[in-house]
Sequence to fold (134 residues):
Amino acid sequence: MTVKQVIVIRKDLKMRRGKEIAQGAHASMAFMSRKLQKILPYSHVTPSHYFSTWEREWIDGDFTKITLQVNSEKELLDLYNNLKDKFECHLIQDKGLTEFGGVPTYTALGIGPHYSHLIDEFVGPEGKYPLKLY
Fold:
C-alpha cells in the first residue's frame, strides 16, 4: 500500500509562487515538527516507536506528496474540521508579514501522511470532499 501526504493550498489568495511553496512546505513540515516536539521531552522514547506504521513507511520511503486546491478560507477550514479527527492534520496560518497586509491568514493544510486509499476516500476525485489538483 502506498502512503502519501496531501498539501492543500488556497488558490483564492493569489499568493506569489514562492509564498505558495513556502506555505506548502510549512504544511508538510508541521507533521514532523509536531511529532518531534512531543518526543523530545521524553528522552526514553525513540522516534521509531512514536510513529505509526504508515508514518514510518512514508518517512522511510520517498515522502510522496500531492498538492490540491481550495478556493476560500471557508473551504480550507471546513476541510480541516471534517478531517482532523480522521487524519493527522496541520492548519497553517501565515503571520501576514510579507503578504496579506499584516493580517494573519489561513493559507494551507497538511493532511497525513497516511495510506493513499484512505485519504482518497475523502479528498480524491471520487471522495467525499473531492479536490482539484493544484
Q: What stands out?
A: The chain has a mean pLDDT of 91.
